[in-house]
Amino acid sequence: MGLFKNPFSKKNRVQIIDNDVDKFLQAFLQWIGGNYTQYDTNLRSYIEKGLLYNPDVYSIVHQQATKTASVPWRVIQGEEETVMDFPLERPNTMQTWAQVKYLQKQFLKTTGNIFLYTPSSNAGLNKGVPKALYVLPSHMMKIVIKQDIDLKNYDESPISHYMLIEGRVYTEFEAENVIHISYPNPDYDLNGSHLYGLSPLRPILRNIQSSNLAIDGNIKAMLNSGVFGFLHGKGDNVLTDTQAKAIKTRLKEMEKGENRLSRMAAVDREIGFTRVAMTTDELKPFDFLKFDQKQLCNALGWSDKLLNNDEGGKYDNVSQFRKQVITDNIMPDNQLINEAYTKYFIQRFPGYENSTLISIYDELPEMQENMTELSKWLSEMKDRGIINADEAREKLGLERIGTPEMEVFAVRDDIIPVSEALNQEIGIDDQAGVQA
Q1: From the CA atom positions of the chain, what is the Rg in Å?
Q2: The model's pTM
Q3: Do residues 72 and 359 touch, judged by C-beta distance below 8 A?
Q4: What is the chain's mean pLDDT, rounded?
Q5: What backbone phi and psi angles, to 5 degrees, belong to 289?
Q6: DSSP per-residue letters across 61-123
Q7: Which one of 63, 120, 268, 311 is most buried, counting C-beta atoms within 10 A?
Q8: What does the alpha-carbon distance between residue 173 and residue 12 come to, in Å, rounded to a whole number?
Q9: Quick one: DSSP state of residue 207?
């Protein structure tokens, strides 16, 4: 793919003639000497039936992605941790870095994979330097492995290139310009299935289906305004087929009526009703929804108390759960992403060879309580002469001032040296000696 070609344009797409996409790809890749890995046919289901259809999956992932997008990035260089400008002001002409962070988290939590396309120059002084960054749709990506590659040879990358498959059309992406970030996958095989990340939604597909069915069933029950059953004559008053049809027709007319009188009808005999389905109250779909919601939160590493859950989600403990998900969910995923960005994106820019991308959490509201507690503890340590003021500032992420007063070990707020404080306690005068 040339430098100035748009990988998303129609010119770079290949039309698949065969209706069976998988058969075509198998035949096509065998012809060019490659293979494509097969992992999970439900990758689209994670997006279409999970993120875009299930309210719990969307709410959980949306909260995670929103919080991830709010965490600041910082590029530092060298042991002195000099702060560097981010090498690209915007990832591409259509998105901001906040939007990229949001999408990355969405795809990671739903498919277990992030695919980033970083087009670069093929020659010249800027050879290999990224010109932009795009988030590719993970659920449409295929990894193409090299011909006759030995997957047990860890010294060589087994990946030939990547393919974005949309219906009967595909687009190729060079392996050297794609950053693949993924969760570890224990589903190892010699076909390369382990090259894809393990989706957190894979073990809970049944819970997603159960949740969707419960919601659909509740809507259906509400639309039907009741349960299924049969009308019949009581005792010897057997309804004829004609009478039964007439009653059904009248019931339909009554249902469409807009005034109270239209919803009244008369019959010349006693009518009975036999129910043949359970009511919504008997089925208790909301109990199943709560169970499924809990399972979804467990698999995605989130707290159900943050989903407007009335059971335990009180104001006094919500802050605890917000802090917990930062440390248990946001931080580990960001570490995974930052390491990949550092090696395969940041360090490709001239002058950034020794730079590292880090995330800053101190300014997040959830972490302010920690900072308050830390400040209080550092103040106590300073007043006891265990640390000096500059050391306390450093622990809080602030720069040292470097003045003699800030480096003195003191025991009071008015900066009394420890040696002077000890002399005062035992009554020693440096000039007069021991006082009488």
Answers
A1: 33
A2: 0.70
A3: yes
A4: 79
A5: -65, -40
A6: HHHHHHHHHHSPEEEEETTTTEEE--S-SSSSSS--HHHHHHHHHHHHHHHSEEEEE--BBSS
A7: 63
A8: 10
A9: H
Three-class SS state of 81: coil
Q: Are 208 and 225 in contact (CB under 8 A)?
A: no
β-strand pairing of 428-429 with 433-434 = antiparallel
194-219: burial string, b at 16+ Cβ within 10 Å, e else: bbbbbbbbbebbebbebbbebbeeee
Residues 307 and 271: beta-carbon distance below 8 Å: no
Per-residue pLDDT at 277: 61
Phi-psi region of 305 (alpha: psi -120 to 50; beta: other; left: phi over 0): alpha
Find tokens 């959830």 and name the residue. 366
Q: How far apart are CA 390 and CA 392, in angstroms?
A: 5
73: confidence class by pLDDT, cuts 50, 70, 90: very high
Pure H helices in 225-256: 241-256
* pLDDT for residue 399 is more than 50: yes
**Could you please report the per-residue DSSP string of 359-375?**
E--TTSHHHHHHHHHHH
- Nearest CA-CA partner of 140 in 226, 265, 45: 45
CA dist., res. 332 & res. 327, Å (int): 7
Cα–Cα distances (Å) from 158 to 22, 37, 142, 189, in that order, read 21, 11, 13, 13
Quote the pLDDT of residue 355.
96
Which one of 68-72, 125-129, 225-229 scores highest in mean pLDDT?
Answer: 68-72
Q: What is the pLDDT of residues 165-224, one digit of tens each?
A: 888 888 999 999 999 999 999 988 766 778 899 999 999 988 998 888 888 877 776 666
Judge whether 296 and 57 are in contact, CB under 8 Å.
yes
Integer CA distances (angstroms), 173 to 6, 119, 141, 333, in order: 11, 9, 10, 25
